């Protein structure tokens, strides 16, 4: 029995050596490919790969099996590395010790993975509590009121089949295609994660300018999180119509107004703790038969009390499968966040392909005035964003695939009582009449 155990142990050691040689070869090939790439963000997906000991013996040896050739081992290892599809994010470095068995190795890896995820989530909750400290708690509704009457479906194709290639802002659609908020209120949805700007202000005040722009970038991305599953259009407000929101529990006050009818132009302004946010919003829409393309026009600005300013424009949004198939939306294009001081940020929203099994990817980097990359960030616009920092001397892909990524932002969970509008928990409260607003209404309304 002891001799058999020694034989198996020797086989495992040989396998570890073969695997180490294979990984070294892969790193050399990857380095050669990176050097051949042009400057910018590559189209490939950035992933954090976690190497677990449990994958070493998967399907390779049984207790009484004979030793396989080194060529077969390398081929099988290469297939396992290329088949890794899942993206795992970690905010601490991992240190592995050799376990006594493969079963213990799997348990150890799973336990370590859960610990890292809990650690990231606990940090995020702690940051939210710090940013929201001192704000009063206001109980808000958790669901929309029940509809008075049952809504009737209308064929979208019958309404817009004669408007292919035209601007849909001039096409009248039935109310069935609207969600129960207006475009004025939808602008305020970008402030759902305003704690990121609170945190950016504190980071800048502490002298960490890199972390400030990283939080601003996360804020710019977070505005798209609520668009997943939202296929209805907001109501078009009247010319001169306004919307005002006072959320003391978030520490923000917001005001928006429709200032132009054709083209539709909405201006907004928001004040938070140590920062101001303003911008104008306009959409150029085109209908292409099976999809609608929305090209935003306008600039969004964040100014902190210390004078630092960041500006950016939104990316293109396309809604697919309007006639046949499951309707879904995707955001794609480049977003440039320009700062008036030392740092700026470039983000790439990857366009989703038909066979893409990992959609909604966002990749980007922060660079200084000299063009040196000092940090990289990556993730999904509907889920979370992570970042890594560096001195700007290495390749961006090397830093992104490292295991020291830190959680920057994570989207809120959807409400338990979803309707066909798929509004977020924050959007449900946008036109809620809270007790504090009741005395402000005009008598008789």
Automatic annotation (TrEMBL):
Domain of life from the UniProt record: Eukaryota
Signal peptide segment: none
GO molecular function, one term: lipid binding
Family: Belongs to the OSBP family.
Keywords for this protein: Coiled coil, Lipid transport, Lipid-binding, Transport
Keyword Signal: no
Protein known as: Oxysterol-binding protein
Pfam families found in the cross-reference section: Oxysterol_BP (PF01237)
Any single biological process term in GO: lipid transport
């Amino acid at each position: 029995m002891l001799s058999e155990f020694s034989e198996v142990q020797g086989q495992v050691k040989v396998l570890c050596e073969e695997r180490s040689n294979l990984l070294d070869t892969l790193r050399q090939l990857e380095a050669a490919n990176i050097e051949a790439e042009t400057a910018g963000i590559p189209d490939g997906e950035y992933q954090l790969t976690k190497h677990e000991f449990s994958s070493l013996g998967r399907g390779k040896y049984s207790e009484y099996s004979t030793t396989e050739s080194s060529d077969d081992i390398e081929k099988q290892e290469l297939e396992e590395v290329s088949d890794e599809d899942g993206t795992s994010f970690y905010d601490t470095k991992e240190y592995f010790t050799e376990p006594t068995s493969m079963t213990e190795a799997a348990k150890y890896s799973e336990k370590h993975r859960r610990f890292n995820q809990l650690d990231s989530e606990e940090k995020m909750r702690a940051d939210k509590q710090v940013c929201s400290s001192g704000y009063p708690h206001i109980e808000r509704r958790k669901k929309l009121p029940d509809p008075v009457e049952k809504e009737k479906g209308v064929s979208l194709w019958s309404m817009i089949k004669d408007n292919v290639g035209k601007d849909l802002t001039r096409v009248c659609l039935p109310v069935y295609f609207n969600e129960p908020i207006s475009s004025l209120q939808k602008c305020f949805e970008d402030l759902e994660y305003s704690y990121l700007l609170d945190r950016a202000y504190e980071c800048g005040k502490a002298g960490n300018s890199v972390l400030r722009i990283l939080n601003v970038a996360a804020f710019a991305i977070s505005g798209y999180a609520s668009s997943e599953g939202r296929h209805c259009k907001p109501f078009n407000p009247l010319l001169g119509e306004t919307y005002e929101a006072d959320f003391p529990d978030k520490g923000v006050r917001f005001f928006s107004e429709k200032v132009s009818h054709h083209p539709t132009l909405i201006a907004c302004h928001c004040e938070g703790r140590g920062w101001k946010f303003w911008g104008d919003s306009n959409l150029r829409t085109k209908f292409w038969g099976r999809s609608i393309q929305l090209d935003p026009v306008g600039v969004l600005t964040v100014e902190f009390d210390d004078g630092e300013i960041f500006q950016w424009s939104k990316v293109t949004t396309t809604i697919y499968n309007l006639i046949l198939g499951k309707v879904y939306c995707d955001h794609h294009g480049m977003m440039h966040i320009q700062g008036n001081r030392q740092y700026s940020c470039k983000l790439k929203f990857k366009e989703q392909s038909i066979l893409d099994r990992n959609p909604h990817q966002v990749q980007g980097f922060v660079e200084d005035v000299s063009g040196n990359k000092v940090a990289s960030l990556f993730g999904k616009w509907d889920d979370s964003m992570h970042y890594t920092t560096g001195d700007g001397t290495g390749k961006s892909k090397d830093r992104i695939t490292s295991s020291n990524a830190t959680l920057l932002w994570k989207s809120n969970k959807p409400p338990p009582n979803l309707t066909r509008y798929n509004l977020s928990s924050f959007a449900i409260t946008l036109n809620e009449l809270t007790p504090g607003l009741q005395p402000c209404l005009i008598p008789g309304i």
